[in-house]
Every structure is written in C-alpha cells, then in structure tokens.
Model the fold of this input.
Amino acid sequence: MAGKRGRPSKTAVPTDTKQQLIDATVALIKKYGADSITVRNVCDESGLSIGTFYHHFQNKDDLLMHFIREESFDSFVLETPLSDIAGRVCELYMHLINRYLSLGEDFMKSFYTTGNTALSAYMGQTDGKFAEGTVMARCEKELLDAQALGFLKKEADAHTLSMDICTIVKGCVFEWALDDGNMDIETSLRRIIVGYLFCKMAEHN
Done:
C-alpha cells in the first residue's frame, strides 16, 4: 500500500536538514541578497524538497526570522554597568550586529534591505509595544532599569528612546555598508548613542 503523500513526519526528516536550509539561505543572501530568497530557491540551493522546507519553516519570512530570533535577548547577560547606560545599550546591540557579522560582511550588507520583511517586522512594534525577546524590548527594559536607579531622568520616555536608538543602530549599519565595512561600527555607535542620550537628558534639566 502506497505511503501517504504530503509533508514528511517529524521522525522522517533528519534534524540536520534544517541546518542545510539555513546554510543554503546564507549562501543565497551572500550571492544575491535577501530579496532573492524564495522557498523554491532555498530548496534548489540545498537540494532538499519543498516538503522538507515546510517541515521546519512556515514560509520564507519565518526562515529569515531565524537569523533574528535565534536567541532571545530577555536573559542575555550584559557586562557594562547600568551607570554607563549608553555603553550598556551599545553592548546589547553589538551582540546582534556581531551575530550577523559572524556570517560574513556580504551577508550583513545584503540582509539589511528594505525588501527584508522579516527584519522590518522584527524591528517594528504592535499596539505600541515591542515583541518579547527582541533587542528593542530589552533595550527599553535596560533604560527603565537605569531610570529607576537615577541614571536617566524620570521624565524620559524609555519607549521613545528605545525606538530612536533602534533607528540610530540601523543608520550605523547602513553607513557601515556604504563604507564597505571599513567603518568601526562599535565606536561610531557608542559615540552617537552617548551624544543622543546626553541631549535627551539635557532637555529635562
């Protein structure tokens, strides 16, 4: 009797096929950019079936979201003290940036595009709130903690500050890409965030 057709069962698909799909995606992004990613292209690059793809991911956006949500920022340990809130926020975002850089400069340059809807969704908000586990939500929490200890003015809006800092980070990444990866992104990021927070705090004096 012929077996059932459709998506393979969990026991039928080797776990390493997920990594094969991820590796194929990285290769495609490096060669053609994030806009080139489709379910068919990833399957062709990996040599795996569409059924195997849908065993691991719901769609292409779910696949791209893997690179962003691979690790929750909720419990990530930061070494910079809250008294240096600008440095602490910079350390937080550099953890995300270094994760992308570990996949290669070409990946990072191609991943940060307007066509990457997964990135847009991750860095957005719903009903005025950041999604749990995102770097923006953690940034807002750090700002609130610093505020509670007196390192930020109580009048400051931590949510707005977090949104602005996210915009600053994206701008630094874009400048880094324009400079062909030669810019010291961490130094620039810290300088701009320090200046931004200093100006915002001065507004409340």
